[in-house]
User: Fold this.
Amino acid sequence: MQEGPLALIIGTRPEGIKMAPVYHALKKAGIPVMVISTMQHDQLLTDVLDLFHIVPDYALDIMRPGQDLFYLTQSVLQKTKQIYADIKPSLVLVQGDTTSSMAAALAAFYMHIPVGHVEAGLRTDDIYAPFPEEMNRRVISVIARYHFAPTQAAVINAVAHGVRRSQVFCTGNTVVDALHYIKDKILHNEVAVHDNIRTCVQRCKQEDKKLLVLTMHRRESFSGGIQRVLQAIKELVHEQEKLLCVYPYHPNPHVLQAIDAVYLRAVERICIMEPLSYVDMVYLLDNADIVLTDSGGIQEEAISLLKPVLVLREKTERMEGVLTGLAQLVGTDAQVIKQRVQHMLHNGVPPIARDTENTYGNGHAAEAIVAIVQQEMKKRSMPVSIAGDSSLKSSAMVAKKGQIMKTVCVVGLGYIGLPTAIMVAESGYRVIGVDTNADRVRSINAGDPDIYEPDMYEKLQLVLATDMLFATTTVVVADYFIIAVPTPLTDDKKPDLSYVFSAATTIATVLQKGNVVILESTVSVGITQKLAEALQLATGLVAGQDFFVVHSPERVLPGKIFHELVHNDRIIGGINQESAVRAQVLYKRFVQGALFTTDAATAEMVKLIENSARDVEIAFAHQVASMCYAQGLDPYRVIELVNKHPRVKLLKPTCGVGGHCLAVDPWFLVDSFPAHTSLIAAARTINDAKPHEVIAHIDQVIEQWQKVHGRPCVLALFGLTYKANVDDLRESPALFIAQEYSIRTDIQVMICEPYIKKNAVPLGLHSLLTSITQAAQHADLLVFLVAHDQFKIIDVTRLSDKKIIDYCGLLYRSHTAVVHEQELFWPAVKIDAISDSIFSEPVSEVTYKEDV
Assistant:
């Protein structure tokens, strides 16, 4: 980055709210920053800037009565051009999707100034919905060098639209930072809530009424939509005596006309208010029972406050809230709005997933953005180290204040090793990551890991920025050594432990007295002791006395690795008690779960049994599914009802078992205890056979379809990874199924896999990859193999002419839940079963029914 301050562009009230935390984080970090306020909003923005104690360095004052997009764009372009020429900013930070942000970014582009985009990656994939915001954010996306995405879905969107993954950082949304800040101020009476707002909330509580908060201002709804919504609210309040609505209206003429047309002011339990201050709005949302809005920011704020939201739009770029179950898209259809509000009033809010309040961030987005900015500034002002730098060995031992710090050497920087290295670095220990793959080492040092895991890029950037992590191909002197190398199976299902002992050989060259060696790789029972003996033989040091060895197996779930590394309990098995105690010191720095010390063999056995138990449970679920298929029953329905028993909890069947753990670890026990593992071996056989059973069923459906239609079937397979929402193809049954169909010539195959980059997909499948939309439109048979969240947003109401088979429970809807809408899908039976029944389709195959 060139010399000069950062320029922060703020044009509207939402931008002011979302950029305020960034401004203060930049100030706290000592980074020079200048605020350019376009004043696209006038008083609304001024109030927000005053609230957050921000005084703009430049105020463009462009707001005019009747201003249109042409005026706004040209005004911001011309005025920011002059300011940029004067202050020569090193980086321009813009937020969201406003015309101010787009034009300011364009001006920076014209002057070769790098742009950072806060709240990047939001998409509806319709450039006219919302208008002009969707196009604004796309223009900014093309211009920006740094993309600070609020969620993982936004990251995926940005990459799908051509942004390099190394330029996208998932930071959370700064609106959550602002929300937490103001909510805390309200709680401690440090900011004032207007009396009429407090009175309204108190009235609701005293009269035991439900508080409905309504906001609406989108251009898309000007031609009748706002009026329909207001009419629906008017009727709801009239019919539901326990309902009170607070409506802070937008001062747009179209909104005012709609209010007058519906004669809303005369309705007793609708409180129409002038636009509220941000403090009042936060207080109101925090006390609301139901929120109706077409605002993007309020969607985020309401979900973060765990409030149910009806989104008054046909499309939203914030589908994360919908996927939590708290938000529903209802558009401006009056009847639908009334039905949904009545349902909420009578049935309450459906159960929500854990951590829903963090859907859009944890309140520290601004800090993450600023840390990344600092890292990028450092990259451009200092030479970049290279793997193997001789200065590493000395600098790794010294903290910034000159104090000696512990050093941890992590050998193996794969799916477990790299996240572990990052977490140890975050805890305050200096980490040297070692991997034999030189390309991976270079990629990690450049801040671009070759594996996907939520928060991986962002966390890696932060520890690199603070010099707490460095990757190399050479093992160095350290206090702790963590071995996290692969332990695959051979072709005959035998454990291959060569990587573990190769790592031990390398570590032995630098091992010193007092060092602790931790084996995290999954191994057979007894291997940790053999590892200790090998190190003892190679060094002449005494294991358990001069150096210490433990087995502490990881027990994390891909997609949630960082959370589970911290919160899961940990087993620490030492070759003696002193070894376990010394390793415990390291894990205490970042593990919040309980730490259980034991002997090494017990730890090894625990790890293998954990995964084998899951494998057996899944095998049972697969056999339940097979029995249901044979009888013409819906396995998901059967399992749902079985689980009503207080002491039974069956898992859901899938298309098979994959991943490096469940599909591999049971064979370690079979190899070690062949006389005692008949059940485990049988479970492995059942699960390995499941993809073949799925293929046979798909073939049966294809054969019948082609007999009816007289032409080749177009088959769409949804998902390739071994489980939902990860990019891991290891041992994936879905990948096996796709590869089997990829060589078929009697059908046309399409494959959707949003979590895998094309270059990571096996070559034979490249030409078959397509988008979700294309597959849904053109396929005759849709087969869901992996329950990715992105597949949940497919509009199934448009698939009435399709055959659908669901092998992962993606489309199953509970039959015991209270649902007032029509069921879109019926459970099914096998192809030639019970004819005089509503259950007349193939089992687990679902077909849309127009009228039920």
